[in-house]
């Protein structure tokens, strides 16, 4: 089993274990409350039917009808209209951001069909926006950390030289310097906490939620889980209503972007942890024979490891097991787009991958499908 497959199987097993542990914990925490709630609801139904002499079947029919009306946005308490322009704008925002609170859903067949195509394009565009935001955040943090590192060098005595010698000394000192991804994760984590705490202060005062409920809502919304049990800006009237709705949108936008970036950085750390675990296991990590990749007209042997493939194609060197730098993180974040552009270029100019031909039934294709087909061709040729 090569390193990529071993990493995939290990991650799948750990996720399954994580799910089992989570299910056990949540079941222990929430199941007793569910049982008490069912007993209380049954008692309330019995008391109501006895007191008002209502047929239980007729009452159940009325409750089902209310559930249908609830799905269309009808509530006992007075809430804002769901499908006026502002309500619809809030809805499409939850669609394209993949939050999907669920408190508003299309009820017509035309609306459901339109949502499929609208969400397909909107979600893809929003994910692209999040990726571009992540690249800019990483670039900004890299510049900030580089500036801080330069300041430390000056304080350590580099600045006592002449200006030309100082510039040369700083370049030599910075040549091998790499900002740690742990610092990036820490900064993004602090930014996410600050945004969540600030937003929770706003929500607890405007929505009359407890602060814990407000923090819970912020995580559910910012991470795009979107349960829908708590949803902000749904009452018909608020104090300073326009300012609150603007602040609500800005907090959700900033929170989603920061949490998305944080998740990406955490995934890099998880991958580093998996590599460390695999390093402790008796699994061979050398490059399998027969694997080749074209680079600037030449052929070179590459490992199946994703980080090594990225380094050889885009950086021109192998990683040496060191902590991944921000620059390497940015490169790996652009792998899919770079492969897509490479495939488009090779298809347009009938590049080296055309040599596989159609002998295995896989056409070259363009874009992600072309990449997948070419990978299937390579695998078949290796066999």
From TrEMBL:
It catalyses: K(+)(in) = K(+)(out). Its main location: membrane. The keyword Aminoacyl-tRNA synthetase does not apply. Keywords: Cell membrane, Ion channel, Ion transport, Membrane, Metal-binding, Potassium, Potassium channel, Potassium transport, Transmembrane, Transmembrane helix, Transport, Voltage-gated channel. It is found in: Cell membrane. InterPro entries: 2pore_dom_K_chnl, 2pore_dom_K_chnl_THIK, K_chnl_dom. GO terms for biological process: stabilization of membrane potential. Residues 80-137, 193-271 form the Potassium channel domain. GO terms for cellular component: monoatomic ion channel complex; plasma membrane. One of its GO terms (molecular function) is metal ion binding. It is a multi-pass membrane protein. Pfam families: Ion_trans_2. Signal peptide: none annotated. The chain crosses the membrane at residues 6-29, 88-109, 115-144, 181-202, 214-231, 243-263. The keyword Ligase does not apply. PANTHER family: POTASSIUM CHANNEL SUBFAMILY K MEMBER 13-LIKE (PTHR11003:SF264), POTASSIUM CHANNEL, SUBFAMILY K (PTHR11003). Belongs to the two pore domain potassium channel (TC 1.A.1.8) family. This is Potassium channel subfamily K member 13 isoform X2. It comes from Parambassis ranga.
């Amino acid at each position: 089993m090569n390193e990529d497959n071993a990493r995939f199987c290990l991650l799948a097993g750990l996720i399954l274990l994580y799910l089992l542990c989570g299910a056990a914990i949540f079941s222990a925490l929430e199941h007793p409350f569910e049982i008490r709630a069912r007993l209380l609801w049954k008692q309330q139904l019995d008391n109501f039917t006895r007191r008002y002499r209502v047929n239980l079947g007729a009452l159940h029919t009325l409750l089902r009808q209310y559930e249908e009306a609830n799905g269309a946005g009808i509530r006992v308490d007075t809430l804002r209209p769901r499908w006026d322009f502002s309500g619809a704008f809030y809805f499409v925002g939850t669609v394209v951001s993949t939050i999907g609170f669920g408190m508003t859903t299309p009820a017509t067949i035309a609306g459901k069909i339109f949502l499929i195509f609208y969400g397909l394009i909107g979600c893809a565009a929003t994910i692209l926006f999040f990726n571009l935001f992540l690249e800019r955040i990483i670039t900004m943090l890299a510049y900030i950390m580089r500036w801080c590192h330069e300041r430390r060098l000056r304080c350590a005595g580099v600045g006592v030289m002449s200006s030309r010698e100082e510039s040369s000394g700083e370049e030599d000192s910075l040549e091998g310097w790499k900002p740690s991804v742990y610092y990036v994760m820490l900064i993004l984590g602090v930014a996410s906490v600050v945004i969540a705490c600030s937003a929770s202060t706003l929500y607890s005062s405007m929505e009359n939620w407890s602060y814990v409920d407000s923090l819970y809502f912020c995580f559910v919304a910012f991470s795009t889980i979107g349960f829908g049990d708590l949803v902000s800006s749904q009452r018909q009237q608020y104090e300073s209503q326009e300012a609150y709705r603007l602040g609500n949108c800005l907090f959700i936008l900033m929170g989603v972007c920061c949490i998305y970036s944080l998740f990406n950085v955490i995934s890099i750390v998880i991958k580093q942890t998996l590599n460390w675990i695999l390093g402790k296991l008796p699994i061979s990590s050398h490059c399998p024979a027969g694997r080749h990749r074209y680079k600037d007209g030449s052929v070179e042997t590459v490992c199946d490891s994703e980080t090594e493939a990225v380094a050889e194609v885009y950086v021109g060197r192998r990683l040496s097991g060191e902590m991944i730098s921000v620059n390497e993180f940015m490169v790996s974040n652009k792998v899919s787009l770079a492969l897509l552009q490479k495939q488009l270029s090779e298809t347009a100019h009938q590049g080296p991958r055309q040599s596989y031909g159609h002998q295995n039934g896989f056409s070259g294709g363009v874009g992600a499908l072309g990449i997948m087909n070419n990978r299937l061709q390579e695998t078949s040729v290796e066999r």
